[in-house]
Amino acid sequence: MDLNFVQADNSNLPKVDALMVAFFFKNNADYYAAELKHVKTTMSGRESYGDDAIGYVQLHREHGLCTLKCKMCPEHKVRSKAYNVTMVINENESEIISCQCHDCAASAGGCKHAVAFLMWVHRRSEEPPSTSVECYWKKPTLSRVGTTLKYITVQQMSKKEVPHRPSTSALYTDFVLEAKKRKLQHCELIKYQDDFKHSNVMRYSLHCFIMDQPPKIQADVDNLVDIMKTTFNRAAISAIEEATRMQYKSSLWYEMREM
Description:
Blueprint: E1 6-7, H1 18-26, H2 39-44, H3 47-53, E2 54-62, E3 65-72, E4 83-90, E5 95-101, H4 112-126, H5 154-157, H6 170-181, H7 188-191, H8 206-211, H9 215-218, H10 221-231, H11 234-243, H12 251-256
Antiparallel strand pairs: 1-2, 2-3, 3-4, 4-5
């Protein structure tokens, strides 16, 4: 820990509200000059990265200024040296003076580690007050992957406990029955039912035509050809020709060109 700094916890962190965050980004062109839609900035501030990558948070207050420092684990090379990020806040004016990463190559132009730390402090400010004290001077969770922490399960990735619901097919059965009642043709789930039949030109596709036949017919080539001769009459061929006139621009054309 640096000289005159103390460990950060949920009782001594400075408040960073949404307006402070908005004014900081507005006054720092490094974070929006490259793209006006802020796609990369939004991704950098996501909770799934910052909450696991940030650790060893410390702070120091002097003359109305609060200086926060943290260690941030790299997103991809989690075993590499952590980056040092510093943020300075004017608590009297409710203003973020600066937020900068000192180690990564992109730090001069506003890197994602600075954004992640800023949004991490903002999320801590939005949390409801707690009677217990949570210390933030701890090793980042992400940096333990591959050492003491060999893997993270899906359940551990969620902060909220997901209730266990018993497996049942009632909803599936009700959905299939309702879809058949409404004669839905564009639902992928319905297409895998044994009694499904295409009602449009698609039923003339060689693949669909064969799959619609009973197993006995599918195994007998002569019977299959005889049925095809009676099915593909002039009316059917005319309907296929009209539906596939756009050729390669029509998805149906790729199905029918085998005929």
